[in-house]
Amino acid sequence: MITISPIASLLVNSKTVIAVMMGGTLGASARWGLLEILPQIGSWPWQIFLVNVTGSAILGGVIALWSNTSYTAVFLGCTSGFCSAFTTFSAFSVDLAQFIRDDNFSTGISYLIASCIAGLSVFLVAKRGLSNFGVSR
Q1: Any domain includes 6
Q2: Of 47, 115, 123, 133, which has the fewest CB atoms closer than 10 Å, so is most exposed?
């Protein structure tokens, strides 16, 4: 007989799975739409950078607003669903690998540093800026 811990049963239920699936669908669709309308300028991957930085800000805001609530499905749908599908670590990694392969180290390093600093900065600003507006239990 398989037993599920009380914590796991709270986190994994049909509402949560559906919320994460819906969030993922919306996040991937939003990313695709933005990448279609954002122009390619030069060799620096601005589109992926903007999507990932925007996703970091959204994640910070969602955590500030809903992390201390009982709305687990909404929280996980927005974070694990939308933000995970909206941002794209795989494209970021491929871009870095291509810069290294092409001996374009300065572009790769600038992309790596800018992405990390900008992503973390907007996450913290959004989280701190919205922390007073969080949804109560």
Answers
A1: no
A2: 133
d(CA 108, CA 122): 21
- Asked whether residue 9 is assigned to any structural domain, the reply reads no
User: Which pLDDT belongs to residue 2?
Assistant: 56
Sequence-distant (6+) residues with CB within 8 A of 34 are 47, 50, 51, 54
pLDDT digits (tens, 9 = 90+) for 52-81: 999 999 999 999 988 777 788 889 999 999
Please indicate, yes or no, if residue 12 is contained in any of the structural domains.
no
Q: Is the dihedral of CA 74, 77, 80, 82 positive or negative?
A: negative
Between the alpha carbon of residue 75 and those of residues 21, 66, 118, the distances in Å are: 13, 6, 23
Range of the domain at 52: 17-133
d(CA 35, CA 51): 8
Quick check: is 7 in a domain?
no
Q: How many domains are contained in the chain?
A: 1
Q: Strand, coil or helix: what is 79? A: helix
Phi and psi (nearest 5°) for 132?
Answer: -80, -10
Residue 2 vs residues 5, 7, 11, 37: alpha-carbon distances, Å: 10, 15, 17, 49
